[in-house]
Amino acid sequence: MAFLTGPHKAGLKRCGKSCRLRWANYLRPGIKRGEFSAEEEHKIIELQAVLGNRWSIISRHLPGRTDNEIKNIWNSRLKKRLAKMGINPVTHMPNNTYKPRSKSNELHLNQHQAGSSQSISASAQLLNKVTAKLVPSGFLDAL
Questions:
Q1: How much is the pLDDT for 117?
Q2: 80 — phi, psi (to 5°)?
Q3: How far is C-alpha 139 from the geometric centre of its chain's CA atoms?
């Protein structure tokens, strides 16, 4: 209720929603400020591959970071970094995997659709490649 009447009583020219978002994204104690670490960036890429653009759910895995902050770093930096590495930021698959259809290619597609474990292992391999480029060596060994 304080977000509804508080701004006007305090002499602010903000609506309640503006005050609530300002508190959630800037004023709340415990919010981390500054650059994201390599580990945080890696975690965002991993979680975005699994969860998609569900920024509030992703932010729960990064204590002290807001969903707005995570969305902004994804759109301003990480998505572009993946594209430069030749990885489609939407599918998290290499960009150069498309080949025109041929009979041998259709056979491969049918085999691929028959066993989803192949696509899981291909996705895992791709994620490992991305991880190796983004996270300093030895970091994952410590986990």
A1: 47
A2: -70, -35
A3: 19
Q: H or E stretch including 113?
A: helix 103-114
CATH of domain 35-88: 1.10.10.60
20 contact partners, CB below 8 Å, separation of at least 6: 3
Write out residues in the chain with pLDDT < 50, as ranges.
1, 98-100, 109, 112-113, 116-117, 142-143
How far apart are alpha carbons 93 and 127 in whole angstroms?
9
CA separation for the pair 75, 79 (Å, rounded):
6
**Cβ 87 vs Cβ 125: under 8 Å:** no
DSSP string, 6-70: HHHHTT----HHHHHHHIIIIISTT---SPPPHHHHHHHHHHHHHH-S-HHHHHTTSTT--HHHH
Task: Enumerate the CATH 1.10.10.60 domain ranges in the chain, comma separated.
Answer: 35-88
